[in-house]
Known about the structure:
By secondary structure, the protein is of the alpha/beta class. The protein has helices spanning about 1-20, 40-50, 65-75, 80-85, 105-115, 125-130, 135-145, 155-160, 160-165, 170-180, 255-265, 275-285, 290, 320-325, 395-410, 440, 450-465, 495-530, 555-560, 590-600, 610-615, 640-650, 675-680, and strands spanning about 230-235, 265, 270, 330-335, 360-365, 375-380, 380-385, 420-425, 535-540, 620, 630, 635, 660, 665, 690-695, 700-705. Strands 7-6-5-4-8-1-9-10-2-11 form a 10-stranded mixed sheet, with helices on both faces.
Amino acid sequence: MANEHYTRDTDRARQLLAEAGGAETIPEIPVSYTAGSGSEQNIAQIIAANLDEIGLRTRLDPQENAVMIDRLRGGTFDGLWVLGHSFAQYTPSTLSVSAFPFNSEKNASNFLDDDYATHADSPGASTIYRRLNNDLLEAAFILELVAPDSPLVTTSALHGVTWSKRSELDLAHAYLTERPSCPVSFSAGSRLPSASSSPARSSSSPCSDSSPVTPPPPWPDPVRPPDGAPNVIVVLLDDMGYADIGPFRSEIPTPALQRLADEGFAFTNYHTTPVCSPVRAAVLTGLNPHRAGFASVANSGPGFPGVRLELGEDVSTLAEVLHGAGYATAAVGKWHLTRDSLIHEGADKSSWPVQRGFDHYYGSLEGLNSFFHPNQIVRDNTVVQVEETPEDYCITDDYTDEALRFIQGTRASAPQEQRPFFLYFAHTAMHGPLGAKESDLAKYRGRYSEGWDVLLRERHARQIDLGIIPPETPLPESVGRLGKEVIDWDSLDGETKDLYARYQEVYAAMVDSVDQSLSRIIDLLDELGEKDNTLVVFTSDNGGSAEGGPEGTRSYFSRFAHVPGLPEDWTADVDRDPAFIGGPRSMAHYPEGWGMASNTPFRFYKGQTFAGGVRVPLLLSWPAGLAAGGLRDQYQYATDLTPTILDLVGVPHPSTVNGTRHGVPVKDIDGVSFAPVLRDASHPSTKAGAVRRVRRQPWAVPRRVEDPHEPPARYALRGRRVGALPRRRGPHRDPRPRRTVP
């Protein structure tokens, strides 16, 4: 039976070789029959053993057998063969490229390294080693068919300076476009054409010698975004609450942010995720965090689906899409999309910003850092070695300086060479440990002596006056992160009040500093005349934090420690001079009462899926492209930012055009552009099917709606009444009604 199979397979191999112009004689060679008669694998092995009869000897990757046979059936060969018969001074001898598929640039390089070295007698021979790739092979093949006398296929021109001035990609594309029907024509049983001959062709064929061939331009045009495409700046804060900026009625002066709101839009019903890394993944990809690989923060490495804590190979970032469309791109500040085990200098850097679409990066890969003595700063792919920082150093200023340098650098060339830019500015502020410059702290000394209850009431009243929340919106319950009541400010003694007020002074100074940072960027854009044609987005990754606990702390990591086995006398604070709070000699975080005021009018905090954790401000401004629209109360989500930005700048997402990333099809995105909402205040939310809460006390029942357009804050404000829940363990084990801010 084996002999019968062998006869059938060799007959088929002989037929294929004859059709392709190879040898008709098949010698007796041993073949292992594991797949039965007619197996493509067996036939491929026979052909592989006889390829030296037609000018190329190689070993086949089993996965490439079918591809190779298809090419033999069609009368075409690998690009390596093209080089073999196109060089006047070259006759192929031996080649071993078993590790790579056909038509790979690696094979081409091996081919020349192994065999052409003995023929490197023409000027510039080494150039070909650096420039061989698939496009070169394709261009050489097409030229051999349509223009055999072209200087490109002669040894001197192909290896000389003429080639180095051309674009391989454009050259191949030009000939493929202009000569789409130039097949190889061989008579059955013939040998491959020699270097001095060309394939037979019909005189009426468009590939005949009389057909004109138009060379490509020597300097191809670079990829450019659509005409008039704006610059894009995304500013993302960390752990900043709903009520902490001027446009959402904070008492903290934020004139730069107010300008954005006045010239654009303030979204009052925007939602995010309750923690950091997931929303950064959502904002930069348009995917729900689990699909992007970030079901949690990047501080572990479980490796499970959705919790890989690395963006997938099939996930495109906003930076990659805009960069591919011709934008200059840079990221500044906190990254937190690389898990802890991969942030050191010797780690695999595939998840670092430069590998995810950014031309430049400057900042901290970690989830938090000191504002005065950063643990690690990275520039592009290199850890910056900083032994000590200047006395007046502040990380927010450092980030801002770098952002300004990037923008200025993009405008240092001639106007016709300038491109729009994408700047992703992710602040370390407002994440703990809190810190601010003394000059900023001085502005707020004594400002918060009346306490968090008064501050919350004042912010709440101003929000109603401006129309950010409906008049009937109640004050939130005074509940801390673990379900206990927030301390009543009036119950504190004077010394404790002074201590706790210090923490909020630092927080306010940090918000002020962030606004100053944005003001410096806007001033530069005004100076360049590009402010109006810059799309600016400002938001926070999640709501205000209660990480400082009920009393706050001057030892952030002591309060932050949540591990079993802590000693009974473990203290979550240290007795340091209150004057140190906010400076380089403390690691402070404010008490949860101030976090409650940050999240006005919502309850609970960062890390929790209540509104206080997931409702944050969203500002958007693009004066040249969108008329100022004021407040928008439509529901939108973090995944909607990437599709909205791409929609506004006129760049399609790769998933809509069969795009790939590293050869892998790109995932489609979950977000939906809310550009229609920007252009029409009456347009419903683009998140059709969003969830609205129907309150039937004591439970909150979700139902789906097709038009979730409604005034902000009417759902998820009261949700479930804690006082009506049955007694149980956990953060709500006390069934008594909670104190409401008086």
